[in-house]
Amino acid sequence: MQVPAPFEYERATSVEHAVALLDRLGDEARIIAGGHSLLPMMKLRLAAPEYLIDINDLVDELQYVTITDDEVRIGALARHRQLLEHEGLAQVFPIFRDAEKVIADPVVRNKGTLGGSLCQADPSEDLSAVCDTLEASCVIRGVDGERVVSMHDFHQGPYQTAVADNEMLTEVRFPVRANSSSAYHKVERRAGDWAGASVGAAVTMYGAEPGATIADGRVGLCAVGPNTTNIGPISDALRGQAPSEELYAAVGQIAADNCSPSTDTRGTADYKRHLAKELTIRSLRKAVARATGQES
Ligand SMILES: Cc1cc2nc3c(=O)[nH]c(=O)nc-3n(C[C@H](O)[C@H](O)[C@H](O)COP(=O)(O)OP(=O)(O)OC[C@H]3O[C@@H](n4cnc5c(N)ncnc54)[C@H](O)[C@@H]3O)c2cc1C
């Protein structure tokens, strides 16, 4: 089936208008942003909303990247391409450019959005792993106002988020820490494909010079099963340690032990577990090198 079920369509003129529509129409309505996940699902009749609320005109309210000394704020309608090309963002969080280079293809990146990626909540969504790795918080808006939830609480399971039927995601916030950096590695069967496995790492060091000790670190795994972000034993193993290949290998093993991939057309479970380990090693190595000025 390649034709969606009939639906009503309305273009929101403001965030206030969009949430008022959501509140009035209830669970029969869905926001449409880039449409690169929702429209294929509608064509396959995996989703059949009665109303689509288009937020693509809300550029002023929802499409921005704001960087200050202690925080980065990104609007929900920021496109993949904007995140790929933003020089300031690449300097503060190079993980974004690493990931965006390997998300889909230019056509999808021109339209797909940060908000749509997080709200789709596909366990293979690269930006979910990026945001989790960076300890982001999500701003959710409804008719009664705003609330902020951690990324950890935002995703409640595959295709499930903390956003209620009468709410929308408006912004994602990221803490900026001194002496920090990040990296992302993905293995895909062919250019533009979803991940067989991918891994993001973020570290904060006690100093910016080579040899500095790791003050804190996080790893987010993608496409290797549920609950594969914010893995406590990984951060415990990194905290207070001197960077070394032995440390990266030990943490890679923790990553492999804490994921639960399934065998599918992208590889066997064993292969993906191996990827989780190897990509953790590479992402940590690169994040530390960047944080200590040895690599850009
Ligand atoms: C061929 C192809 C390859 C792809 N490859 C990759 C890949 O390698 N890695 C990857 O991570 N992704 C990939 N994607 C997905 C792509 O990143 C999509 O852009 C993304 O999943 C959804 O963003 P969107 O703006 O298109 O969302 P939409 O399709 O518009 O919406 C997706 C869902 O989120 C909801 N939604 C959207 N915005 C909001 C909001 N602000 N508040 C509340 N709910 C909202 C919608 O109601 C819908 O349920 C691929 C997609 C395609 C078509």
Q: What report would you give on this structure?
A:
It is a single chain. Helices cover 36% and strands 25% of the residues. The protein is built from 13 helices and 13 strands. Helix 12 packs antiparallel against helix 13. The protein is α+β, with helices and mostly antiparallel strands and 296 residues long. The chain has a five-stranded antiparallel β-sheet with strand order 4-5-10-6-7. Strands 1-3-2 form a three-stranded parallel β-sheet, covered by helices on one side.
Which labels suit this protein?
single chain, 296 residues, alpha+beta, Uridine Diphospho-n-acetylenolpyruvylglucosamine Reductase, domain 2, Uridine Diphospho-n-acetylenolpyruvylglucosamine Reductase, domain 3, Enolase-like, domain 1, 3 domains, three-stranded parallel beta sheet, binds flavin-adenine dinucleotide
Strand order of the largest sheet: 4-5-10-6-7
**Helix/strand class:** alpha+beta
Average pLDDT metric:
95
Question: What percent strand?
Answer: 25-35%
Bound molecules: flavin-adenine dinucleotide
Summarize the structure.
With 296 residues, the protein is of the alpha+beta class.
Describe how the helices and strands are arranged.
Layout: E1 8-11, H1 15-25, E2 29-32, H2 38-43, E3 51-54, H3 59-62, E4 65-67, E5 71-75, H4 80-85, H5 87-92, H6 94-100, H7 106-111, H8 114-120, H9 126-133, E6 137-142, E7 145-150, H10 151-154, E8 155-157, E9 160-161, E10 168-175, E11 180-188, E12 195-205, E13 214-222, H11 232-238, H12 245-257, H13 269-291
Parallel strand pairs: 1-3, 2-3
Antiparallel strand pairs: 4-5, 5-10, 6-7, 6-10, 8-9, 11-12, 12-13
Helix pairs in contact: 11-12, 12-13
